[in-house]
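Lab meeting, item 3. Inverse folding demo.
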């Protein structure tokens, strides 16, 4: 049997457009006629999508400068940054859109934290950088062991600033650096005090590790804090409650693993003392 032949019609007959017609040939073979359809039939050339223009780093640098006034009183410091970069932060984007002024006051914010934020905007990191090994690069100005809380507080302040500026990636980066610092009990108390005075109760990302740290070590470390642990508990009842909850939850899990029958029961096993 002869192979069918395929012929492409001109598509001049709109009635036959898109149809497939079988015709008998003189040689006994079948001819398949396929009418042209779509843009080619209408003589309209295909249009390619234009690629989205990429915003380059030099585009950021061409944008106007914005003044950032950090601190208050005699300690005020004026910093400058490019508007297009600042607008990556929803906080600054809203500020700049709602006012024609090119000066923004940040009276309550820490200068070093703002500096870290700007370094992150321009480079994608801030000092000290995280190394591929998972540690922090050496800071010659800082001791190997943070015995005052200065290094912990540096990243904690970046964390709370990132929360204010709605910069989740910077917030995550700063939090990860906190856990790479070797510190003493005194430093950890200073850090815990900052966390519980500058974050909300719902911020479990930073509060839960603090409560976990003290829940596991408070029976030992509280003796090294020279009364600071007790003062912390009295000043921040939420901290004391979170630590106690961690300890009780851990004990309950241990009891469940042991198969204790009394887990979850409220009845007293012995009478109150007189």
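The presenter then showed the designed sequence:
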């Amino acid at each position: 049997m002869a192979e069918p032949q395929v012929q492409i019609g001109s598509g001049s007959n709109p009635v036959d457009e898109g149809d497939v017609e079988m015709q008998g040939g003189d040689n006994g073979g079948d001819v398949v006629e396929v009418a042209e359809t779509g843009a080619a039939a209408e003589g309209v050339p295909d249009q390619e999508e234009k690629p989205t223009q990429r915003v380059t780093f030099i585009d950021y640098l061409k944008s106007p400068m914005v003044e950032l006034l950090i601190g208050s009183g005699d300690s005020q410091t004026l910093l400058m940054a490019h508007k297009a970069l600042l607008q990556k932060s929803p906080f600054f984007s809203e500020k700049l859109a709602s006012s024609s002024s090119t000066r923004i006051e940040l009276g309550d914010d820490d200068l070093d934290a703002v500096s870290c934020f700007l370094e992150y905007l321009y480079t994608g990191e801030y000092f000290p950088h995280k190394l591929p090994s998972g540690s922090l690069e050496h800071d010659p100005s800082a001791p190997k062991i943070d015995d005052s809380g200065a290094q912990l507080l540096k990243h904690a302040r970046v964390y709370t600033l990132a929360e204010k500026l709605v910069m989740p990636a910077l917030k995550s980066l700063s939090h990860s650096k906190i856990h790479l610092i070797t510190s003493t009990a005194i430093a950890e108390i200073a850090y815990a005090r900052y966390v519980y005075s500058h974050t909300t109760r719902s911020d479990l990302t930073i509060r839960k590790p603090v409560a976990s740290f003290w829940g596991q070590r408070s029976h030992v470390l509280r003796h090294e804090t020279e009364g600071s642990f007790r003062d912390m508990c009295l000043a921040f009842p939420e901290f004391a409650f979170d630590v106690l909850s961690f300890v009780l939850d851990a004990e309950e899990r241990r009891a469940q693993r042991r198969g204790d029958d009394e887990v979850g029961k409220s009845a007293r096993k012995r009478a109150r003392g007189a």
